[in-house]
Amino acid sequence: MLVLLPPSEGKTRPSGDRVLDLDALSFPTLDRTRQRLVKALVTLSSGRPARTMDVLGLGPTQADALTTNAALLDEPAGRADEVYTGVLFSHLDLASLPADARERADASLAVASGLFGLLRPSDPIPAYRLSGSVTLPRLGTVSGLWRDVLPAALDEAAGDGLLVDLRSGTYVNLGKPSKALAPRTATMRVLHERPDGQRKVVSHFNKATKGRLVRALLLEDARPATVDELAEALGDLGWTVERSGNRLDVVVTEV
After folding, report:
1. DSSP annotation of 183
2. Suppose 146 and one of 22, 44, 65, 174 were both cysteines; which one would form an S-S bond, judging by CB atoms 3.0 to 4.6 Å apart?
3. pTM for the complete prediction?
4. pLDDT 10s digits, 101-150
5. What are the C-alpha distances in Å from 80 to residues 34, 91, 237, 255?
6. What would the pLDDT profile of 95-112 be if each residue is shown by its tens digit?
7. Contact 126/152 with Cβ under 8 angstroms?
8. Burial class, 61, CB count within 10 angstroms (exposed 0-12 / middle 13-18 / buried 19+)
9. Contact, 114 vs 131, CB < 8 A?
């Protein structure tokens, strides 16, 4: 099973002397596109601040991201799962897992990234700012650069097993599962059921719930091979799950 996570826009700058080395990252078939994007991001972020912030979709309080991006090759690098600090990752909380569960996480999780394509949790990266929805000067859209190369990397990473695609729409656009992998791909939606029975798709708590779900699967050492087996495993862990095609709706009453 391969669980594919979205990145978080919020990131924590790591410490230490290690810096970005693309050769040290997983999925080496993505290195050529990574090199193009890193070079373009450094160049863009070293230019006019107002223009760069507009291109990257940054607000006035995020100006520090330009300095970090411009010095990306010299910035300290740390484990991806410690650099990403958004809601999903805080509830997944890989650092607190037992050693065996964390080893399973390193082998079975991948993070979709606008800058790096795919990452394993243990891959060393710096903090950076580049959304998958950005259009870069001369290169075009970030999603367009990844769309032709990411599906093959997903095929290789998933092998003959199940892909659990938890990405948001922006990062799905980096590269959808191939025709061969699509029938073995499960997606997930979190619904909040109110006391009156009405249901609503949640946003913030969608990420929190997905983080808790993945953590529970890792702790249980669950290894579902099909969408049905994934639904059954989540049900055994106490979640209310309804299947619609290859999409699983996780219904929660508390958010």
Report:
1. G
2. 174
3. 0.94
4. 999 999 999 999 999 999 999 999 999 999 999 999 999 999 999 999 99
5. 15, 15, 27, 27
6. 999 999 999 999 999 999
7. no
8. exposed
9. yes
